[in-house]
TrEMBL record, chain B:
Signal peptide: none annotated. One of its GO terms (molecular function) is ATP hydrolysis activity. It is a peripheral membrane protein. It comes from the Bacteria. PANTHER family: AMINO ACID IMPORT ATP-BINDING PROTEIN, L-CYSTINE IMPORT ATP-BINDING PROTEIN TCYN. It comes from Brevibacillus gelatini. This is Amino acid ABC transporter ATP-binding protein.
Amino acid sequence: MQMFLSNFFDNPERLNRWIDIAQSSFLPLLKGALLYSLTLAIVSFFFGLIIAVLTALARLSGIKPLVGIARFYVSLIRGTPLLVQLYIIFYGLPSVGIMIDPFPSAIIGFSLSVGAYSSEVVRAAILSIHKGQWEAAYSLGMTYWQALRRVVLPQAARVSVPPLSNSFISLVKDTSLAAAILVSEMFRKAQEIVASTYEPLLVYAEAALIYWMICFVLSFLQDRIEHKLDRYV
Amino acid sequence: MITITDLHKQFHNLHVLKGISLTVEKGKVVVIIGPSGSGKTTLLRCLNALEVPTSGSVQIGDVKLDFSQKVERASISRLRKQTGMVFQSYNLFPHMTAVENVMEGPVTVKKESKESARAKAANLLSKVGLGDKLDHYPAQLSGGQQQRVGIARALAMDPQVMLFDEPTSALDPELVGEVLKVMKELAQEGMTMVVVTHEMGFAREVADEVIFMDQGVIVERDTPASLFASPREERTRQFLQHLKA
């Protein structure tokens, strides 16, 4: 270790090279992160949440076929690796004539994944809302959907913010899996830069740092949102 | 105004209401008393179909529901529009301010414009003595204040009948008076009211009729003066004695 460090710092050429590579790769990596990784995460999270709410409502509906479909979907997605799901969508489906570009393939894969995992969060959040809230809404003459939209979901959303924020932060990091299906997000960019510079430690560490920065900002936003939603409790 | 005919309610093999028949005329205040488990709250909740009775019928105003047949969702909704309900635990919407709580029914259910609903809600809140708390969230209000918002919220739908389910049971003793005062004013304005309560003072003072329920049946009904002074039934006498002790 000591030998390596002394070699490293005694070799100004290597150090300069590192600084050069770090500088020239930073912008492409950041671009990959913001344009692809974060976009992928935001779009997938949006669709994922819609799927999650619908799945949770299906689970809670008590209508047998709906409950069955919802349980099957959650079990299938949670029981198989995300990487394998992405491979099936991108490399597998073309054999039956379904060709989807890398980016939309990734959106589909991540949305389905978010939908399955978050549906349990949403379901628990809806169940945590006191029965009296439903009754008060019904006593005003509201329908099921009105009670859900106006009374129950806004409160359930508040309960779900901490766990859903965690899911979103995980999702941002999981988007690195999309590299495997040729989406030019940050990690794939990093792989390309490593291929031409042969400096894996430097470049991957740089990518890791950018992921960390993004997640740091997201955690900060999470605190802000929780604080804002707490005002009436 | 209200006609209940041979109402039964069964939860699995527990027979909670065993053939209740009752009429309440327009503008009358009926207080239902009885020991816990007597079915009084269930009866009240059957009046707006929060509990769906097993059989029998309920008519409020010109909406009649016969529970021996399959009841349509639309008719349940019409029944609920005739009634306003005040809950023991208030059940205010915690994510809405006082005025938003009161506006919610008119805006969402009756599709009233926000401006007119807000003006009406502000009026109702002044009426229950909370004109200065419009923008407070429920968590910022005392129990008595929350319950008065609850009354205003129910009134905002212009119900024909107001149902009160032990409206003061969750309140600290010093807050009970302010809620009862609002209810008394409402009675004086001629609102038809059905009240489940343990407040015998309120029953004595405001009720036109007191109903004593036990084990799913109406044991006795009379004016408060005669029921409290000279109950005809032994069970009523026992219950009233318990209250005094």
